[in-house]
Amino acid sequence: MPEYLYRRTHGIVGLLRRLVEDGLTKAMESGLENLTIDLLDEITINLGNIPGKNGVRDAEAGEIPDVDTAPAQKRIPRATQPRKSRNTVFDDRGTPPAVEV
């Protein structure tokens, strides 16, 4: 879920707080009482009531984040690359067998 939350909020703490609060409110109202990605997908982050001096924020100064507030499309994982084999240089291969003379 951390990757999902970062993808939705771009790491902006205020948006993360808003998304989680709205998600928890919806979860309690629906009776589900469980915060899931499917539930968060239904929520649009509302930037309309961001507090500021006299309710005014300057978007050009970066006071209003430029993020896509709509729920993100689910990513389809791409084929994973095979893992690199581990280094076996220091592996203990045991005692060599005794050689008969």
Distance between the termini: 64 Å
**Per DSSP, what share of the residues sits in E-state strands of 2 or more residues?**
under 5%
Contiguous uncertain segments of 5+ residues? none
Shape category: elongated
The number of helical elements comes to 3
Number of strands: 0
Helix content: 25-40%
Would you mind describing this structure in some detail?
The chain has 101 residues and is mainly α. It has a domain at 2-48. The chain is 31% helix and 0% strand. The protein has helices at residues 2-9, 13-30, 37-41. Helix 1 packs across helix 2. The chain is elongated, with a radius of gyration of 25 Å. The mean pLDDT is 77.
Give a short overview.
With 101 residues, the chain is mostly helical. The protein contains three helices and no strands.
SSE topology:
Layout: H1 2-9, H2 13-30, H3 37-41
Helix pairs in contact: 1-2
Summarize this structure as a short list of keywords or feature phrases:
mainly alpha; elongated; 101 residues; 31% helix
